[in-house]
Amino acid sequence: METERFDRTVTTTCGYCGVGCRLEAHVRQGRIASISPAADGPANRGHTCLKGRFAHQFTRSRERLTTPLIREGDGFRPASWEEAYARVVSELGRIRDQHGPDSIAGLASSRATNEDCYAMARLMRAAIGTNNIDNCSRVCHSPTSFALRKSFGLSGATGSFDDIELADVAILIGVNPTQGHPVVGARIKQAALRGCKLITIDPRRIELADYGVLHLSPRPGTNAAVMLGLCHVVARDGLTDAGFIAERTEGYETLAELLVGYTPEVVQEITGVPAQDIEQAAHIYAQAQTGCLLWGLGVTEHKYGSEVVQLLCNLALMTGKVGKPGSALLPLRGQNNVQGSSDMGALPDTYTAYRPVSDEDTARLFEQAWGVPLSRKKGYTIPQMFDAALSGELKAMYIFGEDVAQTDPDTAHVVAALEKLDFLVCQDIFETETSRYADVILPASSFLEKAGTFINAERRFQLVEPAIDPPGGAKTDFEIITTVSRMLGHDMGFETPWDCLDEIASLTPQYAGVSRERIGRHGAQWPVRADGSDSPVLYDTFFDNPEQRGKFAALPYKAPGDAADDEFPLILVTGRVLQHYNAGTMTRRTSNVELVDSDLLEIHPQDAERLWVSDGDLVSVRSRVGRIELEARVTERIQPGHVFTTFHFPETRTNLLVGQSADVNTSCPEYKVVAVDVRPVAEHPAYVPQLAGVS
Ligand SMILES: Nc1nc2c(c(=O)[nH]1)N[C@H]1C(S)=C(S)[C@@H](COP(=O)(O)OP(=O)(O)OC[C@H]3O[C@@H](n4cnc5c(=O)[nH]c(N)nc54)[C@H](O)[C@@H]3O)O[C@H]1N2
Ligand SMILES: Nc1nc2c(c(=O)[nH]1)N[C@H]1C(S)=C(S)[C@@H](COP(=O)(O)OP(=O)(O)OC[C@H]3O[C@@H](n4cnc5c(=O)[nH]c(N)nc54)[C@H](O)[C@@H]3O)O[C@H]1N2
Ligand code: SF4
Ligand SMILES: [Mo]
Hints:
By secondary structure, this protein is of the alpha/beta class. The protein has four domains: 8-60, N-terminal domain of TfIIb (Single Sheet); 69-135 and 337-483, Rossmann fold, CATH 3.40.50.740; 142-331, Dimethylsulfoxide Reductase, domain 2, CATH 3.40.228.10; 570-683, Barwin-like endoglucanases (Beta Barrel). Strands 5-4-16-15-14-6-7 form a seven-stranded mixed sheet, sandwiched between helices. A six-stranded mixed beta barrel has the order 21-25-22-24-23-26. Helix 3 packs parallel to helix 20 (477-487), helix 8 runs antiparallel to helix 11 and helix 17 crosses helix 19. The structure holds ligand MGD (2 copies), iron/sulfur cluster and molybdenum atom (MO). The site of molybdenum atom has 3 residues, from loops.
């Protein structure tokens, strides 16, 4: 029983992951006293994980940014808002006038609200005059967005988490929900206990494998072969839904020809997955009445990540398992609002709802609404921004809520780019690895301190309401961005984020019915039509492209961008743990550090023994581009030949190891396949290099 007394309780939405749990934030004396789950949250139904419920102490951390900071010598000095704004506006204005609008780029935060991200995109497009705007989706699920648009038409999950409960089978590939999306992880466990057959596909034996009927462990980077193998068996054994293929799809014949070569034996050779497991998985999925496909970064963060998502769509189309309850494709989008930041057009090539910047009608619509001419030229993606900074074409960046120096690949390259800029603004709630290189740091507000909306991994708009005030002199992101824009000469005319939401709805047919009132306590899944009706299930009658048909993609398996060799004999996979969140700026400032206080290198006992590594040893990990040191954890969760670590602690600098290889269509980094060499830092008393097989 709750015995504490609160001054008030505010219902809002969790700001960590894309599950989008609805929370009750209980406030006492202007502070968050505790948080409990909202019983009627559509995604969480009275549950949360430990981050949503307990990881709120960061809001009152002494390290919160409470005043603007301006660079002085090697450090920073506190400054007034007037001075900070004046500096930002005069530098951005000067650089725009001297070098043109395309010499400036901005990043929108997928941790912030739709209204913040829309305003940031509008700042770059209308106040500066460039399409150089991108967001964290680039390094996360941009391959999902690309592929779903190609295969089905729209960039979002085709159904809801509720579909998991209606599914007879669920395939989880490259996703680890009990760590990354814990409330969905728990819902999947419940479904499995009720009889839903789980098939997990992951080089590591993830926790949900223990609840499943089958676990496949492919070599990292070989997902395409697994998917082609599954489709081969479905076609070979006559398990396709011929009616669905004929009526609703196109391109099946070409795919069918390609599939012939991907026998389970060929696939076993490429992936290491036993042929009979491929057969069994294909039969279980295809013979079920309803089935869901769930995936994550183990699919997307690869050189051919976007192609693998298209292959996943093939499997669903072949078996007619899309567009009906219990048969959904559910990419588990990562950050609380990475779906929304992209939906809002914080991307270099699209306005809201993925309408291209090159599309004349769309560009005119926004020109009319914003009263300024707009560029038709695609802007830079995040990696292109860093390349352009290094080549001198990009002079300034405005980075809002993204810690690129910790989380983007090839840290040395990112840092060199940030150092080369003439001017860098960082807008965050803490100083970060990135803000070390800033000229001005603007103190912003967290999700508990602002109003607006997020869109979760089910395409659901949900309300965010402020429970407490931003600390000290910090301001909301929305106020900061709209003020900078006004001072640059483009007044957006918004009093509150709700005015902004109204503008988004008025300029975007897909969100036409969205309003604060319509979203209410239970949210609305886009498309939200003008009459307020929303869309839990997509494609029930037609696909959303001109032909109204699902498109098969005949894409062969291709080898990943990196491979183990004599010098770098192990494959490093990177990911996350339950207790910490991405750059860790927030969770490291909560008691979660008492549970996990560093990144660890997971290594299989066989490799550990061969390399003279014991549990707890400090080891050196070297890749083709960098070297780091961290503590080893010897565990059988990982396969021999692979090692695993996280990127939550800045001192580890994990991303020094990751190179430039990236998805061929979207430049999402290949974080999941990095060839490395591991050896103990301190020599073991009995260590003989020749015996350890290293030179
Ligand atoms: N606790 C916590 N939760 C988070 C986050 C966090 O940092 N901490 N971050 C959020 C964000 S931004 C995101 S995007 C999501 C990410 O959540 P997930 O998509 O689940 O991401 P990861 O855990 O990085 O990777 C998923 C799995 O892919 C596997 N994998 C790697 N390579 C391959 C491969 O070639 N094939 C296959 N089949 N599998 C492979 C890995 O072993 C791993 O178990 O989590 C969100 N939730
Ligand atoms: N090696 C490796 N690297 C990876 C990955 C991997 O699997 N392996 N995963 C990648 C993925 S999927 C992602 S999404 C990225 C995530 O990388 P980032 O986006 O850089 O990480 P986050 O910790 O989510 O948040 C970024 C910043 O936003 C700030 N912030 C939070 N809320 C707010 C707010 O409301 N306003 C403002 N102004 N700031 C706010 C935080 O303090 C933090 O500094 O990392 C990527 N990096
Ligand atoms: S599952 Fe995700 S949205 Fe839900 S409480 Fe945990 S971090 Fe927040
Ligand atoms: Mo992500």
